[in-house]
Amino acid sequence: MGARDDPRWCKLERYAIGPPDAVLSFATRLARENRWSDDFAERVIGEYKRFCYLALTAGHEVTPSDAVDQAWHLHLTYSRDYWERFCPDVLGAPLHHGPTAGGAAEGGRYHEQYAQTLRSYEAAFGEVPPVDVWPAAAQRFGRDPLAFRVNPHGVVVLPRLATLIGASALAAGLLALGWLLGSGL
Questions:
Q1: pLDDT (tens digit, 9 = 90+) per residue, 59-87?
Q2: Domain ranges of the chain
Q3: What are phi and psi of 132, to 5 degrees?
Q4: pLDDT digits (tens, 9 = 90+) for 16-34
Q5: 63 and 113 in contact (C-beta within 8 Å)?
Q6: What is the pLDDT of residue 144?
Q7: Which of 31, 44, 101, 109 has most Cβ atoms within 10 angstroms of its Cβ?
Q8: Is 113 exposed, middle or buried (0-12, 13-18, 19+ CB in 10 A)?
Q9: Cβ distance 82 to 90 under 8 Å?
């Protein structure tokens, strides 16, 4: 039986996170906190639901993509919704989020577990996971863990190439400003 024929999947698909009357919806908050478009945040929520389905049915531990993990982390902050409604009424079981203990052995274990999660996704849903939400294991455990969250208030964040070009332009601008201020113009 595929996910589409499973009543657990149907329940997950219909489930809406958080209070329905909230001014700031879960999807809007997820988009805002991650600087994603509303459309991408909605897609990530759909993929988070698929991840939760896999956690119930895959027969092995599953590991989320970074984007799916962000949805899971935010959902956990809706603690009453998560523990009193989602787990018992939708999943029918608790779904705990366990952090890694760190180290090379753990890194290897999560790398393989994630690759297995991607294979289970394809088997359950009959399609390859979207790579913009579920990148390959090498990216998930190579580049993605190097990311960190930055509050953009008061800072400028530039892409790496733009950083080089921008830093040069900024330095030239500051030199020119210094020259203008120093020359009394």
A1: 999 999 999 999 999 999 999 999 999 99
A2: 3-149, 157-185
A3: -75, -20
A4: 998 888 899 999 999 999 9
A5: yes
A6: 63
A7: 44
A8: middle
A9: no
